[in-house]
Each structure stands twice: as C-alpha cells, then as structure tokens.
Write a structure and sequence with these properties.
By secondary structure, the protein is of the alpha/beta class. The protein folds into two domains: 4-281, 3-Layer(aba) Sandwich (Rossmann fold), CATH 3.40.50.300; 287-376, Helicase, Ruva Protein, domain 3 (Orthogonal Bundle), CATH 1.10.8. Helix content is 44%, strand content 14%. It has 15 helices and twelve strands. It has helices at 4-8, 11-20, 27-36, 43-64, 89-100, 125-134, 137-140, 174-184, 222-229, 238-245, 260-266, 270-273, 287-307, 317-330, 334-354; strands spanning 79-82, 105-109, 113-114, 121-122, 144-148, 188-192, 203-207, 213-217, 278-281, 312-315, 361-366, 372-376. The chain has a five-stranded parallel beta sheet, sandwiched between helices. Helix 13 (287-307) crosses helix 14 and helix 14 crosses helix 15. The termini are far apart.
C-alpha cells in the first residue's frame, strides 16, 4: 500500500511536505470559489464547512509546523449534515476537499457496512478505505471521512419505513452505531490492512485524533416525527396535517435539532449524536435554485457531450420550466433535473446516434398541448 521509501521517512516530514502544498485560503476565499464552481444555495452550510475546513488545516499546521502540543488545541470537529435528497450535501464535500483543499478524503455509503462478525464490510474498514485513497497511513491520519446515508443507521424506531423493516436482525443499525462511537472521537483504532476479508486481515494501529468525520443523511420522516410529537390538542384539518408531514423535500431549522432526545426517538444513540460538534441543516432547493442548477450544470454537461459529437442541443425556455416543475414535484432535488432531462431527450439522442446523418441539432419544444416534442435538423 505504501511506497517503501515513504515508509522510511519521518511521518512529520511527510505531513509537513504535504501541508506546504495546500494553499492558504481564508474561509471567505473558499466560499467565493464554491460560488464560482456553480454550487447553488445552502449559504449557511457552505460558510460552516469552509470555516471547519480552514480550522482543520490551520490546526494541523499549528501541530506540525509550530510544534504546538495537540492537547493545547481544540479537538478535531465532526459535522452532521441533515437535509433532503438532492440538496447538495455530499456534492459540497466533493468540491471543497477535491478541488479547493485537496486533502485525503473518502466518501462511503454506510449502508454496505455491518457490525463486526456479520456479513458485510466491518465498520473499521472505513479507515482502510481512507488509507487506500490517501496512499499511506501517514497522510490518511490527516484526512477527512464522509459517511453518506447516515440516517439509514437508525434502529428502526423512526417513521422512514422501508421494505423488509423489522423482518431481519438489526446488524447494520445500532451495532454499527456502537462501533462508530470510538471512531468519531480521538481514538486509536486497529485498522485492517486489506479491504478484502477485513475480518481476517492483519491490523495496524491508526489514530483518528486528526481525522474529522462528516455524516450526511436525508432523515426521511424526522420532520413528520417532530410534527406528531409536538402536535397540540385542538382541531387540525386532515389536509393541513398531510401538507405539514407528508412531504419528502422538507427544510430543517436549527430548532429541529435542539434536543438529542429527538434523534434518540428516531433511532440513534444519544452518545453518537453527541460526537458531532455541529448539526447543519440543509434547505430543500426551490425552483429558482433548480433553474440555476439546470442551466449552469446539468444542461451544460449534456450539451458538452453532444457537442463532442458535433450535435447542438437547443431547448426552449418553456421546456426548461417544465423540467424544473416536474423535478420540483418529484422532490428529489437536483437529481430530478437529470431524470427528466434524460427522459425528454433520450428518443432524439437514440435516433441521431443510430443513423448516419448530416443532421446535427436536436430541438426540444412544447406543443399546443404542453407536451414536449423534438425535431432533428
């Protein structure tokens, strides 16, 4: 896994050399770069993560450049991102830690992990993945771990019902939560050196004292649970109840996370939620934000793909509005834009890619019945 020459070097020298390659961006500079990268919305979340990233790098430089004892500095921070699907939680992490601050990082889907001793990947192999992504144990020790689909670890007490719930042993819920407890604090973990057969692989000690964790989850049903919990005596119409509690694409506020007991009721160990220094709500994307994402990101990429084949994509503004409205109703955020765009252009693309033709333009428009039609020129 590691180059032998690197292994012989002093870890401090390796980290010093790596940190000198990281640009000294201020939090505001990082925020401005994010905006120029066409990341739309989530202003408060962007500010919080930029500050966290700045403090992480600054803390490392104090430790490795200035030889400040680690116990004289604040401990590393763990963040929890809560927001509806498609609102940009993991995308924000990808841009910041890959394009702006290229720190060792890994984004893992926690649903594929299980408690040690059961079928599935051991939780500690999350750190093995970080080591593989970093290229060495030394650089992995200052990396960042993103745990995606974190809400799926709830022990089944929540309102986010899924197929098969309650029919199988809970080996990927509360058991995984227990194993994450030690990892999220500043601990020394015995990490498998090999991803395959991690339960039988040799292990090596690995410290997480400089590894921040960022967990992301949609927490479907959390708002519904709070609404039910806080419901007061009195008359409330069925339609009002349904409107308040049945939406998937909901926005959260800080007040929703004021009590750890709310997470406990949802199915999380209070001790695990207490490992997060910040719980950051993400807003559901509105139509204006979806339009910016469609024009500046989704359409741009698909138009680029077609242009590489000398095909121009012309889309009427009314078609764009329909895509946005459809995606908004679907309640999957930015992912819905891609779903509907592909649906509306796939027949035209199939036709133009399949035929030897000099026609090099696809035109999408609405007919008099407000149905999307296409032509090839």
């Amino acid at each position: 896994m590691e180059n032998r020459n690197i292994q012989q070097e002093d870890p401090q020298i390796i980290i010093n050399r790596f940190l000198r390659q990281i640009k000294n961006y201020t939090p505001l500079e990082m925020l401005n770069i994010l905006d120029k990268s066409d990341y739309i919305g989530q202003y408060k979340a962007k500010k919080a993560l930029c500050l966290m990233a700045y403090r992480h790098v600054n803390r490392l430089k104090k430790i490795y450049f200035d030889s400040i004892p680690i116990d004289e500095l604040p401990s590393k921070e763990n963040f929890l991102f809560v927001g509806p699907t498609g609102c940009g939680k993991t995308y924000l992490i990808e841009i910041l830690f890959n394009k702006i601050l290229p720190l060792p990082n890994v984004i893992i889907d926690i649903t594929s992990y299980s408690e040690t001793g059961y079928i599935g990947q051991d939780v500690v192999s999350i750190l093995t993945r970080l080591v593989y992504a970093s290229g060495s144990y030394v650089l992995a020790s200052i990396g960042v771990v993103c745990i995606d689909e974190f809400d799926k670890l709830s022990s089944g007490k929540n309102n986010g019902v899924f197929s098969g719930q309650g029919t199988t042993k809970d080996v990927s819920g509360i058991g995984v939560q227990r194993e994450l407890l030690k990892m999220l604090e500043s601990s020394v973990i015995d990490v498998p050196v090999d991803l395959s057969h991690s339960s039988y692989s040799p292990r090596t000690p690995f410290s997480t004292q400089n590894v921040p964790f960022i967990a992301c989850g949609a927490f479907s049903g959390f708002k519904r649970m709070l609404s039910t919990k806080n419901q007061t005596m009195g008359f409330t119409s069925y339609n009002q109840k349904k409107e308040k509690t049945s939406n998937i694409s909901v926005s959260y506020s800080r007040n929703d996370f004021d009590k750890v007991s709310n997470f406990e009721e949802y199915g999380f160990m209070p001790e695990l939620i207490g490992r997060f220094s910040r719980i950051i709500p993400f807003d559901a994307l509105n139509k204006d934000e979806l339009k910016l994402i469609l024009l500046n990101n989704t359409l741009k990429k698909y138009s680029k793909e077609l242009l590489l084949e000398n095909i121009k994509l012309n889309i009427d503004e009314k078609v764009c509005d329909k895509i946005i409205n459809d995606a908004f109703k679907l309640e999957t955020g930015a992912r819905g834009l891609k779903n509907y765009l592909i649906e509306y252009i796939e027949d035209a693309c199939f036709d133009i890619y399949s035929k030897i033709t000099t026609k090099k333009a696809i035109n999408l428009f609405l007919n008099n019945s407000s149905e999307i039609r296409w032509t090839i020129d």
